[in-house]
Amino acid sequence: MRREETAAALLRTDRRIPTQEKTMTRRATIWMAVAALFTVINLAGGVYAAYVNEPPHALIHVVLTLGGAYIMWRIAARSRENSMQGSMTSDGLPAEARLEQLQQSIDAVALETERLGEAQRFEAKLRAEKLKNER
Prior knowledge:
Layout: H1 2-16, H2 26-51, H3 55-86, H4 95-134
Helix pairs in contact: 2-3
């Protein structure tokens, strides 16, 4: 029962996170490539050592291959955790909601600036008419 609840919670979480935030950082990508290369080389070394009938040598390569696979798994898990945390901001709002709120604030400021400009133009027009009437 717990496993099903956890899976359901993960599915709900994944729906809230945009796909563009699920990307790995450059550093994680580089380390993932290094770990993959390490794993593939040790897998090939293990196959070759088994082929030339050197069981202890092959066992070392198998252990190193499993270690490389574990490192790749940890890098992927940490990257997923970071992307999930990155989608929420310090005040608990999703990043998209904060961006939307910021956009609305900028629009409100632009509207008020436009109103001030109109008021200044109207005042300048009234002053010009007043000066014209005084002459």
